[in-house]
Amino acid sequence: QVQLAESGGGLVQAGGSLRLSCAASERPLSMYAAGWFRQAPGKEREFVAAISWSGGGSTYYADSVKGRFTISRDNAKNTVYLQMTSLNTEDTAVYYCHYRVGAAEYWGQGTQVTVSS
Prior knowledge:
mainly beta, four-stranded antiparallel β-sheet
């Protein structure tokens, strides 16, 4: 029932930056964690980053993006962000946000990120 709206994708040159956002249609009552996945053409969907709502908000990153991507959240806006820097062509993919709310899982519609050389 919760819907996620993604935005911020686009075309950038290698070395550039993009900021993705994912806003939930309603306030999650039991938020556990949120994250980002991506799927490149001909590839399986892979984990990118995640952030926990517990404590100070622990973050987790795939090795391929560690040091370049930063995940963050805004509880008041029910929004999770992915700041991407030092983009390279291997980052080209459709990016999907993901929320775990209680025992349920929700996915965004995906936003295209294309990095040109």
